[in-house]
C-alpha cells in the first residue's frame, strides 16, 4: 500500500526493480495513490487514487513509506559527549556492501 503514485520510491534502482519483481512473482496485491488507510484484523480499507473506498481481505499489510536516514540517536549521543561513528542506513539508505565498508573503516579508525 503506497500513498504515492509509484511503489518503491526512495529505494535504489536495482533494489527497487528486484523488490517489485519479487512481489509480482509472489502474487502480492499492491495499491498506489491510497489515502485514509485503515488496517483491520483481516482486511485493509482505504480510498483509491479516485477517492473511492476500497476494502481488501488481507492477512498481512505492508505500508510503503519510503526509506530515509535517521541520525537523531547519533546526535543525542554526541550531545552527551559520547564519541559516535555512524554507518550504514543510519547515514543514508544504501546497499549492504556499503554498510560493511563503512563498518570496516570505523574499525580501522578505532
State the helix count.
Answer: 3
Instruction: Identify the overall geometry.
Output: elongated
Query: How much is the average pLDDT?
Result: 87
Radius of gyration: 19 Å
- Estimated share of beta-strand residues: 5-15%
For the biggest sheet, the summary is: 3 strands, antiparallel
Helix and strand content put the structural class at: alpha+beta
- What is the strand arrangement across the widest sheet? 1-2-3
Helix content: 25-40%
N→C terminal distance: 43 Å
What does this entry look like structurally?
- It contains 3 helices and 3 strands.
- The chain is of the alpha+beta class.
- It has a 3-stranded antiparallel β-sheet with strand order 1-2-3, with no helix packed on it.
- The N and C termini lie far apart (43 Å).
In short:
With 110 residues, the protein is an alpha+beta fold.
Strand and helix layout:
Blueprint: H1 13-25, E1 35-39, E2 43-47, E3 53-57, H2 72-79, H3 96-109
Antiparallel strand pairs: 1-2, 2-3
Entry keywords:
110 residues, 32% helix, 3-stranded antiparallel sheet, alpha+beta, 14% strand
Amino acid at each position: 500500500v503506497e500513498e504515492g503514485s509509484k511503489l518503491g520510491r526512495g529505494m535504489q534502482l536495482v533494489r527497487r526493480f528486484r523488490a517489485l519483481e519479487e512481489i509480482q512473482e509472489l502474487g502480492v496485491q499492491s495499491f498506489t495513490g491510497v489515502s485514509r488507510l485503515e488496517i483491520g484484523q483481516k482486511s485493509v480499507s482505504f480510498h483509491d487514487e479516485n477517492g473511492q473506498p476500497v476494502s481488501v481481505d488481507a492477512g498481512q499489510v505492508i505500508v510503503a513509506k519510503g526509506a530515509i536516514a535517521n541520525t537523531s540517536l547519533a546526535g543525542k549521543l554526541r550531545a552527551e559527549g559520547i564519541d559516535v561513528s555512524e554507518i550504514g542506513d543510519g547515514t543514508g539508505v544504501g546497499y549492504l556492501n556499503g554498510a560493511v565498508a563503512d563498518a570496516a573503516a570505523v574499525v580501522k579508525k578505532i
